[in-house]
Amino acid sequence: DFGWRRADQTRYELNGEQTVLPVELLSFTAKAVGDQVQLNWQTANEQNSDYFVIEHSTDARTFTLLGEVTAAGHSSTLLDYEMWDKQPVAGLNYYRLRQVDFDGTIHEHGLAVVRFAGDAGGPTVQVFPNPVADQATVYWTAEATDLWLFDINGRPVRQQPLNGEPGSLSLDMSDLPGGFYLLRLETPQGVETMRLVKR
């Protein structure tokens, strides 16, 4: 077990104990369409679900409210939701999905990322936070096929096959010693690398 597993088409999450949430989310995606970004998510089950919140960020750190969508409340069927960002910025756009219960409890349901046309060709892979304490999130905007993590001696310590689409992945480094690591993203166009620091 390398500490990460595929969760859906564009989002990856850690292995570990699963908490039963009021909403069972099947997918959450962001896609550039013309001069806008289309956001879609699908649920399989909803209990006590009041509404969804979509937030936007350009750095995966500071988020602002994009909009809210009324939830089903109680449902045991597949439901599809949609929202549009009519003013995305050039470059990377991060979207965070949250769900709010009737009692005000807020649940996080992950991130989606899309590179919008018009940027100056920034990096296709980013990690936050870096330096890493125990866990980090890796974002990529290229049609990637594999993601590798190497230690300072060039030995692979993590490897994850990807599905050829942009996405994100939660990286567990809690079992690794402190030091420098190299993250490598493989795409049909070539390889991109970046350095990580484990505290």
First-to-last CA distance: 22 Å
Oligomer: single chain
- Low-pLDDT stretches: 1-19
Give the name of the CATH architecture of the largest domain.
Answer: Sandwich
> Helix fraction?
under 10%
The averaged pLDDT comes out at 83
CATH topology group of the largest domain: Immunoglobulin-like
Order of secondary-structure elements: EEEEEEEEEEEEEEE
CATH superfamily grouping of the largest domain: Immunoglobulins
Estimate the strand proportion.
over 45%
Overall description:
There is one protein chain. By secondary structure, the chain is mostly beta strands. The chain folds into 2 domains: 12-116, Sandwich (Immunoglobulin-like), CATH 2.60.40.10; 123-198, Immunoglobulin-like (Sandwich). It has no helices and 15 strands. It has strands at 5-6, 12-13, 23-33, 36-57, 64-75, 79-85, 91-101, 106-116, 125-128, 135-140, 146-150, 156-161, 167-172, 179-187, 190-198. Strands 3, 4, 5, 6, 7 and 8 form a 6-stranded antiparallel beta sheet that branches. It has a 4-stranded antiparallel beta sheet with strand order 12-11-14-15, with no helix packed on it. It has a 3-stranded antiparallel beta sheet with strand order 9-10-13, with no helix packed on it. The radius of gyration is 17 Å and the shape is globular. The two termini are 22 Å apart. Mean pLDDT is 83; it is low at 1-19.
Question: Brief description of this entry?
Answer:
The protein starts with a strand and ends with a strand. It is built from no helices and 15 strands.
Walk me through the topology.
Layout: E1 5-6, E2 12-13, E3 23-33, E4 36-57, E5 64-75, E6 79-85, E7 91-101, E8 106-116, E9 125-128, E10 135-140, E11 146-150, E12 156-161, E13 167-172, E14 179-187, E15 190-198
Antiparallel strand pairs: 1-2, 3-4, 4-5, 4-6, 4-7, 7-8, 9-10, 10-13, 11-12, 11-14, 14-15
